[in-house]
Write a structure and sequence with these properties.
Helix 7 (204-215) links the parallel strand 5 (193-197) and strand 6. The protein is 40% helix and 15% strand. It has helices at 41-49, 56-70, 79-94, 101-116, 122-151, 178-187, 204-215, 228-233, 259-268, 300-303, 345-352, 355-363; strands at residues 11-14, 20-24, 35-38, 160-163, 193-197, 220-223, 239-242, 246-248, 253-256, 273-276, 282-283, 322-325, 332-335, 338-340. It contains twelve helices and 14 strands. By secondary structure, the protein is α/β, with parallel strands linked by helices. It is globular and about 65 Å long. The structure holds 5-S-methyl-1-O-phosphono-5-thio-D-ribulose (MRU). Residues 51, 54-57, 100, 165, 167, 171, 177, 204, 243-245, 255-256, 321 line the site of 5-S-methyl-1-O-phosphono-5-thio-D-ribulose. 5-S-methyl-1-O-phosphono-5-thio-D-ribulose (MRU) binds at residues 51, 54-57, 100, 165, 167, 171, 177, 204, 243-245, 255-256, 321.
Length: 365
């Protein structure tokens, strides 16, 4: 089994309730690997918004720790004050980015924990919430391994795999989602070649996926986004694996802008298109992709990427950060609870909704 270099943790909590959230500042990669410490809820909000910490699972974990940080002014207060502050901080952190459902999922889980133990003092509850954030982090790592196990057999020895954006160790506290599948297949001894879309406009593919694969010694080739179709045509790609930011009940999947185009290209070339995601990325309250909010970011990310003016300053530009790939273009969903194939409302429900919840909904209790 090939050894892979361990990476600096994407994020980690340092200390006890009064501690801080240490993250890799991903905006500086690949030029500089720098960790920064976040000590206020505003800093956590800014770090998520500015993509210093990014990717659906990682921003869920960061937000859970961010909630703990935001409570440090009310540790000696009455529980009503503490609970009100928790709601405020959670609502605030949730506004940092709208598309990845893991953010709201993690904050909702933290609030449910607080609601379940009204008898604890504020200080005791803060400690309990730190434990819960740590638990979310541990589960995040475990789900990466489970996704890897579920998906590794999809990639045969010698496969050329295309991935879009960055869905690797940098988006989780473990191996990632899409890249977890690739890492697991490599650990099985398979020789893969990864084609990496650069992923305009913020270059998560070029800056982050290419860096991560290089650090781990996995053979990879960087492509500008518009080359993907031609490289498929040339026969170099036998599978596409991407991550997801939110998956609706019918399987429609929001992911980084450009994923929709790649899915169509894969279909046109008869290449399987896989989406790897944890259960926390499913939003069964969204019936289909039309209910998924799509983040629109500043047009200057398109016209002035990385501070350099590359288009006339007066041109108008659109910058949707995500798009939605229709379920019918997805060959299989690779989840921590196994493969979902074919992708439709029933197959998703059977895997994602726990048996006892399905039973409850059938008997109407
Ligand atoms: O804007 P980003 O960099 O946060 O977008 C990230 C992606 O689109 C990833 O592909 C997605 O979060 C899945 S990673 C598990």
């Amino acid at each position: 089994m090939p050894e892979m270099t361990p990476l600096t943790p994407t994020l980690a909590w340092i200390g006890d309730v009064g501690g801080c959230l240490r993250i890799i500042d991903q905006t500086l990669l690949p030029g500089e690997l720098r960790q920064i410490d976040l000590v206020t809820a505003e800093q956590v909000w800014e770090a998520i918004r500015a993509l210093r910490v990014r990717g659906a699972p990682a921003i869920g974990v960061a937000a859970a720790y961010g909630a703990v940080i935001g409570l440090r002014t009310v540790l000696d207060a009455e529980r009503t004050t503490f609970d009100r502050r928790l709601r405020e901080v959670a609502d605030y952190l949730e506004t940092s980015r709208p598309t990845a459902v893991n953010l709201a999922w993690a904050l909702g889980r933290m609030q449910r924990v607080a609601a379940s133990r009204p008898e604890l003092s504020s200080a005791e509850m803060a400690t309990r919430l730190l434990e819960e954030a740590r638990q979310i982090e541990i589960e995040d790592r475990e789900m990466c391994l489970a996704i890897g196990r579920a998906g590794a057999d999809l990639l045969a020895d010698g496969t050329g795999v295309l991935t879009h954006c960055n869905a690797g160790a940098l988006v989780t506290t473990g191996d990632g989602t899409a890249l977890a599948v690739i890492y697991a297949a490599v650990r099985q001894g398979k020789r893969l070649h990864v084609f990496v879309d650069e992923t305009r406009p913020l270059l998560q593919g070029a800056r982050l996926t290419a860096w991560e694969l290089t650090e781990r010694g996995i053979p990879a080739t960087l492509l500008c986004d518009s080359a993907a179709g031609w490289i498929m045509h040339e026969g170099h790609i036998q599978a596409v694996v991407t991550g997801a930011d939110r998956i609706a009940a019918n399987g429609d999947t929001a992911n980084k802008i450009g994923t929709y185009s790649v899915a169509h290209l894969a279909r046109a070339h008869g290449i399987p298109f896989y989406v790897a995601a944890p259960t926390s990325t499913f939003d069964l309250s969204a019936p289909d992709g039309r209910s998924i909010p799509i983040e629109e970011r500043s047009s200057t990310e398109v016209t002035q990427p990385f501070g350099r003016q590359t288009a006339p300053p007066t041109i108008s530009a659109r910058n949707p950060a995500f798009d939605v790939t229709p379920a019918e273009l997805i060959t299989a969903l690779v989840t921590d609870r196994g493969l979902i194939q074919p992708v439709n409302r029933d197959t998703i429900r059977n895997v994602i909704v726990r048996p006892e919840e399905r039973l409850r909904s059938l008997v109407g209790t």
